[in-house]
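Good morning C.,

I know you're traveling, so I'll keep this short. The sequence:
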Amino acid sequence: MQLRKMMLVLTALGAMSGFMVGCGDEEGTSNTCSTNDDCAGTEICHPTAGVCVTTCESGSDCPDTAKTCAPLGGTGTDAATKICQCSTDVLCNGGTDSDSTDLVCSTLDNVCVTKCTADSDCSGDRTCNTGSGQCEEGDTTGDTCSGEGLSTCTYGEICTASVCAAPPTPTCQNYTSFPNKADLGTTGPIIFKTELVSAQTDSFCASSAPKRLRIRVSAYSNTAFPQTSAELSKFFYVQTDGGRQNAPISSSSGNYTVTGTNRDRADIIVSLCVGATSTTNSAGFYFSGGNFACHTSNYQ
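The tokens, ready to paste straight into the viewer:
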């Protein structure tokens, strides 16, 4: 029992020093493995992450970096064995008071691992998303998924009608006139849904264009969205002539909502002012490094 407690303490200290959870090697290295024999007595070799992980009976056996005690899962002989699993990148790196950013909580394995920088850092047929530092499954286009946003799809894809697919190809005039296409990509926040919330005259808009369109833009990101919309940067609204500006977001409550364990989803209501007799509008939206989303609003 004393040995087990000592190993748990070493595990927690190792993770806060930039190690993977369950590792206790010299600083800057990680305890990779291929079999359980490569790991300490309280650890097993994670079959897909390829690192030693601490076994547990409850969350109290686990370090703060990976506090969830849950079955390993899968089909191997250790599938029912409970291991300490992580929940956020921040905790993997030692919490909010730590300056470390070397680790990520693997979205596939739920264990803290060193950020990858190339495909060679990943096991099997996994590939490295250099933007997030996550090893991901290969192209999941056409694979089934559930819900919306990233779901189980490869970063840059979206779950559409329960199937992983690339976001819709933009064809609106806003996109064809847009001169800064080099700003787009698949590593920044990915917009997966846009929808018209309301269209009505109110005090937000000037008398020259009194009708206010409220359009909800939903996106996911591999880095946490900020606490407030005022801190949101590089989120743009693109006009039909290709001109862009910072997307106008009201500071009123309800116009900026962030959810997810890692604050990885944002639902943002953008306010656009149009003429009193206007009944249709074309708008473009994007985050720097992300996809371009066209949205057509029809209203009275």
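Safe travels,
E.
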